[in-house]
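Exam revision sheet. Question 4 asks you to relate a sequence to its structure. Input first:
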Amino acid sequence: MKKLRENVGGLEAVARLSPIFRLFGRRGRRLATHLEEVSGLSAQVERLSELPDRFNDVFAERGWIAYEMMKPELMEEALTLAGTGGLEEAEGVLADSYDAENLRFQMNFMSGIPEFRDRARLLDKACDDYLAGRYHACVPVVLALMDGFVDDVGEVNAGFFSKDANLTAWDSISAHDKGLQKLASVLGVGRKKTRVGSISVPYRNGILHGHDLGYDNKLVAAKCWAALFSLREWALARGDGRGPERETKEGLRETFRKLVDLSRQEAVLAAWEPRSVQELSQIPMQGDVEEYAEGTAERCVVEFLDGWRRGNFGQMARSVCGGAGPEIGRRAGQLRSMAEGRVLASFAIVEVKDVAAAIAEVEVELELGEGGEVRASRKTVRVLYADGAGQPKMAGAEAGSWRVVNLDVVW
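Answer key, structure tokens:
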């Protein structure tokens, strides 16, 4: 945020020269237009840079922390309500934001992390329980899987609630000292006395050791999901080894380039629309892989299922991971193990939904051979458009491809 403030301050200074840039032809006029849009950014950046700390100061002790995928508007609304004495109302607004759309969306974005994908099958079941109001079932699962996720991602064998876990990372909103480290201390506090009354914080020890018996409510469950999703940026930061020593100074040319790129991306996002009903109706329900257009979500799903039907688990793994590399072999072995005893006799596409610029859902009908019998099963395959590191990209970007993200299809 310090770097961003410096860049915006420099841009605002240059923006005052935009009338001069307009004298230098078409390119100068385009640059001046971008610079004029910068006016007033400093105040916005300042407000945004302070928002995570302001949010954590009020809500961390109650089991919420700010993280990258939490909408600033939601944090601002919660802070406004808390400031007028409506803390319970503020927490209700935060909990209500974890609805079906938000959960599926954030789980899709976390699927770029291999350690998360290993847990996706159980988290999908926990999500179903949460949306059905079975909070008693989903809360222990999410808490346990958070613990294992941190253990796998971290550099030492220490889960989320371990005193040895390092939950800080350079250049991360959630992995700030006031973020995950504070949250772990709040959720991991000792709870040795049995309590039957309703609680509002997912105390790990009290819940998993059977002392906090009133944990089965929406507020506790929503805080579990928020804690899980806040681990995404920590895991990504740990994975790329970023640190202060890698910080570099950016010149004005680079700053201008990023501004233009950002404007272009925003324009593409604003212009994105799902395919028309007529276009989607042209997608064949069944057929060979080659009958589906390259670079589409449905082709990725067909390649995945065709690999399963032919027992080619390497092909399935490439549809999950993209490209090639050591993870392909590991994922192929995992898929082989998951599919053991189940043969895919046939499959058909029922419906394709373009959910967002980088997310699609493909509903499929499967005929599975198991134990000498054939049974029908309908599944929704979620696919994400991502780059080689698993980071979401705009569909159609050169550095990306569609990938299957929910492996529970094989179960």
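Marking note for examiners. The longest strand covers residues 342-356.
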